[in-house]
Queue: 4 jobs
Job 1
Amino acid sequence: MAKVLMKGNEAIGEAAMRAGLDAFFGYPITPQSELPEYLSREMPARGKVFVQAESEVAAINMIYGAAGAGARVMTSSSSPGIALKQEGITYIAGSELPCVICSVGRSGPGLGGIQPGQADYYQATKGGGNGDYHLLVYAPANIQEMCDMIMEAFDKADYYRNPVMILADGMIGQMMEPVEFKELKKEREVPAWATTGTEGKRAPNIINSLYLNPEDLEEHNIHLTKKYDEMKEKEEQWEEYNLENAEVICIAYGTTSRIVKNAIETLKDEGINVGLIRPKTLWPFPEKAFKEYPKTAKAILVVEMSTGQMITDVRAFNEGRLPVYFYGRSGGMIPTPEAVVAELRKIIEGGK
Amino acid sequence: MLLDNKRIKIITGHYGSGKTEFACNYAIELAKNSKKNVVLADLDIVNPYFRSRERADFLKKYGITVVSGLLGNEASIDIPAIGGIYSSIMDSDTQLILDVGGDQAGARVLKQYTSYFDEKDSLLMAVINANRPGTADVDSAINHIRAIEYEAGMKVAGLINNTHFLRDTKPQVVLEGHKLVKKVSDKINVPILYATILREYADELAQVLDVPVMPIDLIMRDRWM
C-alpha cells in the first residue's frame, strides 16, 4: 500500500483495524478524540463493532467482557480517562485476557490540561490498579512506529494473555506524518480458552480474577510472574543513537526523544558527541541497554515532559556508575532543542 | 500573484489538508504586499493543537493580528468559543483571512458570519491534499467540498492544491496531486488558485505548472518534527 498522510490518532485506528480489531469500546477525551471519531465511522463500515460507552469505566469493562468472549479488542483514552480505567485493567490482567489500551497522554495531575505530557510513566509502568501485575508498554516516537507497534501489540497480548499499552503523548496523537500500513500476516483464531459457549460438548471456560483460597492465589501470582519474567527476557526494545564516543548519554522516549535527537545533531556540528538511548518499551524497561556504556561517557541526562518519572528507572539500572541529571518541562510545555543543548553544555563545559 | 481583489478569504478543507500552514504563509505574503491591515482569524474549533493562534507572536512580526477565542490566543482549551472578528468583517480597511477548522464540522462555525459577508468581497477556498485518505479521489474530494459548502452556506470559489508529504515534498508529489485537483476543478467548474510547495522547490515547480505557485515555509511545524 502507498504512503498516506495521517494524524496520529487516526493512524492508531487504521492500524488496529488492519490488525484485525473486532471491537472498540471507548469514550472521547482530548487529545485522542479523533481515534474514537475515526473508528465510529470506519468500524461499522467494515462490519465491526464500535461502542461509545457511557464512561471510561464502562468501556474498560466492555473490553473485559469482549476479550473474554475471544474478540480482538481495543480501548483508548488520555491521562485522567486512563486513571478511571485502572480497576478494569487490573481485572483484565488478573483474568489473563488480551487487549490493547492506547493512552495518549496530556498534562496532569487531575484534569490538568490538554497539551501533551509524559507524566503518566508511573501510571503505565508501575500499575495504577491493585496487585502484582504489569502491562507490556510500548512508547512510539513517530506515527509509523506507532502503527507497527500496534500490529505487534495485538499479537503480544494474545501470546502473553495480558493487556498491552501503547503510551503515546498528545503530540504523537495530534501530529500528521506519512505512514504506510502493513497487512496482517494471518487471520487470528478465536482462542481455545474463550467463553464462546460449550454447546454441551466441553467443560465451561471460566474468566475470573477472584481466588478465595490464598494458596491458589499465590500459585496464580507465581504463574503471572513467570510471564512477566519472560517479557523481561524477550520484549525489551530500545534504540541507540550516536552512542559511539558520546560524552553524555541522553535518555528520552516518545516525542521528547525527537527533540533530543535534534539537539544531538546541533552539537555534532560543533564536534561534540552526545548519544541517546531511547526506550521503545517502557515496561519491560530496556535494562540490557544499560549493561555497558561507551568509555567516553561522563554523565547521563534524562529528558522528559514531566517533573521526572522515568529517571527512577534510569537511576536503578545505572546503579550509581554515572551521575544522572534531569531536564524536564511539564504542564503541557514542550522542551525545545535549544534548551536541551543548553543543559548538555552545562554538563559538558561546566563540569556540572 | 495574490488575489487581493477579495477582501475576505475563507480557507477551508479536510482535516490535515494543510489549511493552517497555507493560511499563515498566505497571511505573510499578503502582509508584505498589502497596505491594509491583515487579520488572521483562527476559527478552528475542532483541533486542540496546531492552530494558527499558537503562532500569533511570530505573525505579529509581519504586522498580522491573530484573533481567535474569547479567552485569548494563549488559552489552550477545546471549547467552541470564538469571537472578536465581526469588526474585521465590517472594516473595509482590513484584509481578513479566516482559518477554518477541518471538515464540515469545522466549517459549521462559518454560518454565523455568512450573512455579513459581501459576496463581491469574499472568497471561499478549499485546500486539497491528495495524500490524505479522505480526499484521495475525485468523488470523495468533491463530497468534502459539498459538505463544507452546505455547512458554510457558501459556494467554494477557488481550489488550492496543497498536496504534500511534509518535509518529503518534492515537485513530483505536487504534480501527482495536481492531476486530482485538476479533475475536481474541471468537474465542479471552480478554478485552481494556487499550488503550494516548500520554498526551496517553488521555482522548479513553477516552471512545469500552469497555476501560480505559493512557496511554503513550515511555520506550524517545529524543526524537530
Note: Chain A has a mean pLDDT of 96.
Job 2
Amino acid sequence: MSVTTMTPDLHQAQGLEVTDNPGPAPKRIVTGYGFWIFILSDMVMFSCFFAAFAVLSGETAGGPHGAELFNLKNVAIETGCLLLSSFTCGMASIAADLRNRFWFQVAMAVTCALGLAFLWIEFHEFADLVARGAGPSRSAFLSAFFTLVGCHGLHVSAGVLWLLTMMAQVFAKGFRADIQRRILCFALFWHALDIIWVAVFSVVYLLGSGA
Amino acid sequence: MTDVHHSHNPVDLAPGDEDEGRIGPRLIGYVVGLGLALLLTATSFFVAGTDLVWQPSIPVAIIVLAIAQMGVHLVFFLHITTGADNTNNVLALAFGIMIVVLVIGGTLWIMANLNHNMLPMDQIMRMQR
C-alpha cells in the first residue's frame, strides 16, 4: 500500500521521466498566451462599442443616414489593404522564423505601406464627413460611428508605430529570442485588428448602407 | 532556438504559432487564408448591393458571411486550431466569445425591450405639461 503512494517520488528520485508534469511552459508560450488574453479583452471592449452602435444606428436626429454618407468603393479598397497587409504580416512571421533579415524587412515595409494606405483613406473619409456637417456631434448615430471606427483606426495607428519599432529592433539587434516574442505578439495584434475590421465593414458599412 | 520549430514543449503551442515547421505548407496556409478571406469579402459586398436575392435575407447573409470570415482569419492567420496543443488558447477564445455574445446580445435585447415598452416621445411631453 505505502509503496504505491510513494511511486512518483521514487520515480523522481531515480531520475525517471514523470510524464504528467512537463514543468513550466517556455517563455514564448507564456508571453503569447498573455498577449492573447489582452487581445480577447480588447475584443470585449470593441463589443461594447458595437453594441452601442447597433442600438444607436437608427437615432439620426433628423440628420443623414448611413446610406447617404458611406462610399462603399472606399470601404472595399480599405478592406483590400487590410487583408493584404495581414497576408504580408504572415510572410514577415515566416521570414522572422527563418531569421531572414532581408525578407522580414521587405514584408514589414509592405505591411506598413498597406496600413498607412488604409489610414489615409479613413482619415479622408472622416475629414469629408466633418466637412459635410456630419461630424460626431451631429447625431447619436454619428457619435457611435466615429467612436467605433475611430477606435479601430487608433488601433491601426498604434500597430503601424509598433511595426516600425519592430523593424528598427530587428535592424539593430537581430532576431534575439525576446525580439522574436515581440514579433509574435505584433503578428497576433495585427491579425486581430483584421478580424475587428471584418465586423466593422459588415455591421457598420454594409448593414448601415442597406438599411 | 536555431530550429524553425518553437515548441520546446510538445504539449503546448503559443497562440499564433503553427504546428507546421516547414515553409511550403505555411506559405500555402496564408495563401489559402487570403483567398478565402477575399472571396468572402467580395461575396458580402456583392450581396449588400444586389437585388438578385430576397431582400430581408440580406442582413442575415452579411452577418453569416462576416462570422465565416472571422473563422477563416482565426484558423489561417491566427492559427487557432482544435489540436490538443491549442487547448488553452481555444478555451480563452471561447470565454471571450461568450462575453462578446452576452454584451452585444444582451444590449440589443434589453434596449429593444425598453424601446418597445416606452411611450412615444410626444405622449411623454404631453404628460409632463
Note: The two ends of chain A are 73 Å apart (CA to CA).
Job 3
Amino acid sequence: MFYNEVGQFKTSYRADQALFPIRQDLIALGVFLIFLYAVVPFTFNNFWLNTVVIPTLIFGVATIGLNILTGYAGQLSFGTGAFMGVGAYTAFKLTTYFPEINIVILILTSGVTSAAIGLFFGIPSLRIKGLYLAVATLAAQFFLEWVFIQMHWLNNYSESGAIVAPTRTLFGVAITGPSATASARYLVVLSIVVLLTWIAANLVRGRFGRSWRAVRDMDIAAELIGISLFGAKLRAFAVSSFYCGVSGAMLVFFLYGAAEPNVFDINRSFSILFMVIIGGLGSIYGSFLGAAFIWNLPIIIRLIPLALGLRVEPVYTEFLTSMIEGALIISVLIVEPRGFARLWQIAREKLRLWPFPY
Amino acid sequence: MLDILHKIFVGPFIEMSHAPDLLVQVLWEGFVSGTLYALIALGFVLIYKASSVFNFAQGIMVVFSALTLVGLIEMGLPAWLALLMTVGVMYVLAVSVERTILLPLVNQSQSTMIMATIGLSSFLIGFGGFIFGGEPKSMPVALLGIPTGSMQFSVFNGHINIQNLDLAAAVMALVMVTTLGIFFSKTRIGRALRAVADDHQAALSVGITLKQIWVIVWFTAGIVGLTTGIFWGARSDVSFSLQIIALKALPVLILGGFTSIPGVFIGGLIIGIGEQLFEYYWGVQMGGGTQGWVAYMIALLFLWVMPQGLFGEKIIERI
C-alpha cells in the first residue's frame, strides 16, 4: 500500500538501473538521513553516541570494505584488522608531519597508504584463491601487527607504544582529541560514512562491480569474456583496503582517541568478517546491519542483567558474552545463511504486495 | 648497505658454522614445535577430509580439552578418571556439533561453514572460561605420567639439551600420525571416510552413514586436540592465547596439502624448523618476536612457486 511502485514508469535503461529505482526508497532514505543529521546529534546522549552510533558507523565502513573484497569479488580475507591499522598509523604520522592540513583530508588520504599495502598483499591472488589466499592475508595480518609493535617510528617513539589522536578542528570546532564533543565527532563521522557509502554503492553497480561479481561467480568464465582477472582482483584489494584504512583511522581519531597495536589484531579481522557474513555477502546496506548487530550484541548482553537487577561478576560477563555471541552467530547462520540483507529483501518483496498478496 | 646484506646473507651462516651444537639445538626446538603444529593441523585435516569444513575451532578444541582435563584434576579427581571424563566430554562435543551445526548447515557454502566454526570457537572460549576460569593453568605433568627432566648429548665439541617432555611430544606426534595414516588406509571406517571426502552423495548412495562419520571424525579430531593440548600445556601453560598459535596449522596445511596426512607432518616440520631458524639467526636482529608471522611468509613463498602446496592434488579447472 505504502510501498507500491504503480505509476513509476521507466523509459530508459539508465532509469531502470538507477541507484533507487523505486521512489519510496529514495524518500525513506532522505527521511532517514534527515533523522541522522538533525535529530540524532541533539537527542542522543554521549553514552549512546559513543558506544552505539559512532562505532556502528565506523565499523560499517570497514565492513563495506571487506564486503567489496569478500562479498563482491569473492576473495576471502583475514587481514582487515591490519589494514585498518595501516590507515590509523598513517593518519597519525600524517598529523605529526602536516599539522596544518585538515584532519578530514588526512584521514581520507591515509586510506591511500592502506590501499597500496593492500595491493601488495593482493598480488598473490593472481595465483592462489580460496583458503590458500586467506592464508596469504593472514601473513599480512600477523606481519603488519608485528611491524606496528616493532617500528617505534610509527608511534613517534612514545613510551606506552600507543598512538594518541591530537586535537584538531574543523570550522573552528574541535573534532578530534579529548576536547571534542560526541556530537561534533558524530557529525564528521556521519558525513564521511555517507560519502564513502555513496561511492561504494555506485562502484559496485558500475563496471567495477560487474567485473568483481563475474570474478566471484566464476573466475575462468570471467576471464573468457574478457575481464582481466588480475586487474579486477587487485582493484578489489585496493578499494577494500582503502575503506578499511579510513575506517581504522576514524576508529582511532573519532572514537578511541588513542590506540595500541592490539586494537588491530586478528580478532578484529574476525569480527569484521562476522559483520560481513551476518549482514549479508554482497550488500552495502547489509554491511551496516551486520556491523550494528555484531557491535551491539555484547553491549545488549551486558545490559540485560543490569536491567533485570542481577549482579554478574565482570569475569563471567566476558565469558557469557562470548558464549552467547557464538551461539547467536551460529543460529543466525542456520536461520538465514545469506544474512540480514536477505531478510530485508524478503520483507521488501512482501511489503510490495501488502495487503493483497497473491 | 653492504653491512645489511652481510647481516642477512653471510653473518647468520658464519654463526651457524662456528657453533654447530647451537644449530642442532635450534633445529631440535624447531622439530618439536613442528610436530606439535603438525598435530594441530592433523585435527584440521581429519575434519576437512570428511566434511569439507574448515574447522577454525580446532585451536580452541585443543585449549578446551586441555582446560577440561586440568580443571577436572584441580577439582580433585584422579588423573585417569579426569582423562577418561575429558574423552567423554570430547565425544559429547562431537555429537552436539554434528546435531547443532553440521546437520542444519549441510550444503552451505564454505565461507558460511568457516563462520559457523568461528562462532563455535567463540562459544567454546566462553563455555570453557565460564566453567574453569580464564586464568592460565599449568598442566599437572607428574600426575599424567609425562616424563620431565632433560638429557644432555655432546655433539660437535659442545652439547645439546633435550627435554624429555619434548621427546615424548615428538614421539607421541609421530605415533599419532602413523596410527591415523594406517587407520585411514586400512580400516573399514577409514575407507568410508575417504569415500565421504571424495563425494558426499556417492558415499551416501553406497550406504555410508554421513552423520556417523561426522561424529567419528569430530571425536577423533577432539582426541588429537586433547593430545596436543596435554603436550602443549605441559610445555607452556594452558591458556586461550594458544588459539592464535593454533592458527599456524593453516600454513602447515598449505604446505602439506589439505588432504594428505603424511604431508601434514612434513609441512609442520618445515614451518617449525623454518621459524625457529629465522627467529634465532635473523629475527633477533630485527627486534625479535618474528615467530608470529614467519610461518605465514614461508607458506606464501611456497605458494608463489607451487600454488597447490607440496602434496596437494593438481587442480584442473573447467567451465
Note: Chain A touches chain B through 46 residues (CB under 8 Å).
Job 4
Amino acid sequence: MKMDIFFWGVLASFALYLFLGFYAGRKVKNTDDYYVAGRNAPTFLIAGTLFASMLSTNAFMGDTGWCYSGNITSAVLLNALCGSGYVIGVLFFSRYLRRSCCNTMPEYFGTRFNSMKNRRLSAVILVLALTAYLLAVMTGTGILLQELTGLSRGTCLFLAWLFFTAFTFYSGSKGAILTETAMFLIFVGASLIAAPYIFHAQGGLGELMTNLMNNPNTPAGLLDYHGSPAGTYGEGTSIFNTVMYAVAFGIVWLITVGISPWQAGRIMMAKNEHVGLRSASIACILTTVFTGLTYLMAIAVINLNPDMADPQRVLIWASYNVVPKFVGMLVLTGIMAAGLSSAVTFLSVVGFSVTSDIFNYKFKDDKQKLFVSRSVMLVVAVVALVAALANLGGIRVITWFASTLIACSWCVSAFGSIWSKKLTARGSRWSMLAGLIGFLVAKSAAVFGGVSLMNWLDPFFIGLYLSIIFAIIGSKTSSLTREEIDYRVNLHILPASEQMTADYRVDKNYGKILIMFGVAVTLFLLFGWALPYNGLI
Amino acid sequence: MGEIIFSIFIGGWMCLVGVLVIWWLSREEKKTKRNDKQNIMEGGH
C-alpha cells in the first residue's frame, strides 16, 4: 500500500464526502427530501450536480487521451453541441417534467400517458442502462484508486463503493447534490490550479501553439480543424466523415444531457424553473470552456512527454511528474471525484426507480416508503458491487447499455410527451421498445458483424429513427384518452409562482452571459489558434 | 480557412443558445403579461 500524499489526499476527500452526506441525511424527513431534495435546491447546487453527473473518469482519462492522440478539435466540437443540450433540455422538456411534480422520470411517463405499462417499461430500461453505466464508472474509479494507493483491485472497488453508497443510501438526493457539488468544486478547482503549471512547464500557454507546430511528435491532424481521422473511424476516414463524427456524437450527447434521467431528473430538484434554466446555462458554459481547459492541458503534455503508450494516463502522468505534489494530489482527487459523483447519481436514480416504478407497492405512509427506498438502494448497491468484483463492468458489451442507449430510447417519448398532440401511450411505449431494440441490433451488427455504421447511421441514430417510426405507427393504431389530453394541456400552464418579471430579467442575463462566453471562445480560438496556424498573424 | 470557420462556429453556437434563451423567455413573458391584462379587463366587467 502506497501511503503517500496521494493516498492521504484521496482519503481526506472521502472523509469530506461522508461528512457532507451525513450532514444532508439528517435533514431528510420524507420521500420528497429523499427523492428530489425537497424540490428546493438553488442554482449553484443544481449546476454543480448537472456538470458533475456528466463528467466521469471517462472525461478526464478517455477524452483527454483522445485529445492527446490528435482529436482536440473533435472533442471541442462535440462538447459545444453537448453543452447546448442542457439549455435545450430545460427549455423544451425538463421544466415541464418539473411541473408534473413526479419523483422519477418513469413515474412521469406513467402519469403523462396514464399507463402503468409505460411506467414499468421506462423503469426497466432505466435500471438496465444505468446499472451498466454504474458498473463501468465503478470499474474506472476502482482502477484509478488502485493506481493511487497500490491496494488490490477488490479492496479498491470495495472502498470506493463503501464511500459513495454510504452517503447516497442515507441521504438520497439531498446528499447526492451536496457531495456532487463538492466534487465539482474539487475537480474544477484542481484543474484551474494545475493548468498554469503544465502550460509553464512547456514554455507558457502563449507558446503552446508554436511548440506544437514545431514538435515532430505532434500527432498528424492535431492542429487541423478536423482533427485526426484515425481517432474517429480509423485510418483512411475522409475529412468529411471525421468532422461528421464529432457533429453526430455531439448531437447524441446533446439529446442525452437534455432528457436522460440523471440530467433532466436533476431539474426536478430545482427550487423553480428559473433556477433550472440558470443551472443549465452554467453547465453549458462549463461543458465547453472547462473541458476545453483540460483538453489544452492534455495536448500541452505532448511537448513534455510525447508518444505515451497509454494516452488515457496523460493527466495522471502530469499529476505525478509536472505539477507540485500537492497540486498533483488535488488533480487526482478531482478525477476520483468525477468518477464518484457519477456513481452517486446513477445509484440514486436506479434505487429510486426500483422502489417506486417497478414494484409500485402501496406504502402505509411516507416513513415506510422512506425505509423501503433506503433498503432497496442498499440492495442495488450490493448487486452493483458484486457485479463489479466479478469484473462485469470491464466487459465491453455492458458499456453499450450505458449513457446513450437511454437517450435514443426515450428521446421521442420525452419531447413528444410535451409537444405532440398525437402521441399516445401505445405510441410512446412502442417508440421506447423500438429505440432500445434497434440500438442493440445495430450495435451487435457493427461490433460482431463488422457492418460499417457511421455518423447518421450510427446505432444511436438507427434506434432513434425506429423510435420515431414506431411512435407514429403506435399512435395511429390507438387513440388518446381524456386523461392524456388534459395532462398535456396542464403541463403547458405556467405556474403563477414562475411568472415574476424579476426572475425573467435574471434569466435573460444568463442568456447574455452565454453570448459573451460565445464571443470570448471565438476570439480565443481565432487569435490563439486559427489565425496564427494559417499564418494570418 | 477551416480553422477560422470552426472557431466562429463554436462560439457562434454558444451565442445562438444565448439568443434562444432570451428570445424564448421574452416570448413567454409577453404571453404572460397579455394573459394578465386580459384577466384584469374581464375581471373589471
Note: Chain A has a mean pLDDT of 89.
